[in-house]
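Risk mitigation, structural track. In case the binding assays with zinc ion fail to produce interpretable data, a predicted complex structure has been prepared as a fallback.
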Amino acid sequence: MLILSIETSCDETAVSLIEATGEFPDATYHILGNALWSQVDAHAEYGGVFPALAKREHGRTLVPMLQQALEESDLLESHATDLSDTDQTKLQTLLTREDGLADALIEFCAQYSLPKIDLIAVTSGPGLEPALWVGVSFAKALAHITGANVIPTNHMEGHILASIYDVERDDMLSDISFPASALLISGGHTELINISNWGTYDKIGQTRDDAVGEAFDKVARLLGLPYPGGPQISKLAADARKRELTEFTPLPRPMLTSGDLDFSFSGLKTAVRYAVQDRELSDDEKSAIARDFEDAVAETLLKKTSAAVADTGAQTLIVGGGVSANQFIKRAFEAHFLTEFPDCTVYFPSPSLATDNSIMIALAGHARATGALSPGGAEGIRADGNKSL
Ligand code: KG4
Ligand code: ZN
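Fallback model:
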């Protein structure tokens, strides 16, 4: 089954082509082409993602990403697509809100054709709704051209599947024992999920304010570091640990005694703000604060997740979302679980699949399609910024 997948929920515009053999979860996946355009430079001056700009950038880059993914796959056919006037009008209607995208797609079709695609998987939520709509409308337009089915997918389910995608073992999903716990940590989400079986999710904890990735980004901004802050903070923190810099300031471990599985990160960010305000920080001080902050985050995530695993008796822990790219957090979890929960297998994504990408959307689309293919065609599919698992 040839899957074309599209991700536009935030500030990454991504298109992939994947050949899936077999049924979920026992399939093998062969990545044919994987194109990703990161908008971080465009958003850097705003210190975070600016939704109207994200929407515009997706519209501008989707066709080039489609072309790149097809070229990488050796599936770009250099002859024009047969589009009638009615087809062109239909594409203009489907993409009417996406400035210039219909024209770009029609221009692409004047030169190239698409291969036979079995399934188009697209993120329909959660995320920034104007950004999601660009991908959803583009998927509908491609469905009109190719006749393929569109499967709306959940971005967070994508993160879960990306974390258990075993790049080394013939591109299969790992064998998972249930119940499993998932810790999803990204720019918009911080949540603990109990997974009793494939596709059966129960949210058992979540942040009451900022997401953990958002806290990384805000603290980075306080330190004068560029967006996205996670990788920047983590680099400085590693340097501070290597040089054993002394603690800059004691920071709280929020909600550890709350008796539930919820998180809160805005107080931690405010504590950093108070500690640094009206001060000219040296480079060493910045590194020390980055380390103090990362320590506080790692300890908080670890303790709450351990409580979730103890409560649910989880045999598997899946950590996913952009913050799971953090190698310090990963090592802390792996070391702790090895001694405290030796029977619970811990999964983190391979680094290239931790932050947003469209491979994870292909996996989620395939999981849904080979389970129960939603009938009714592409027309009714909507973007939903708050879509839950
Ligand atoms: O999943 P993702 O790519 O996008 C959303 O769905 O939100 O996550 C992005 C978040 C950003 O807040 C970014 O700062 C954070 O992931 N991030 C990291 C690291 N790499 C990305 N946070 C901590 N350490 C990292 N190495
Ligand atoms: Zn994400």
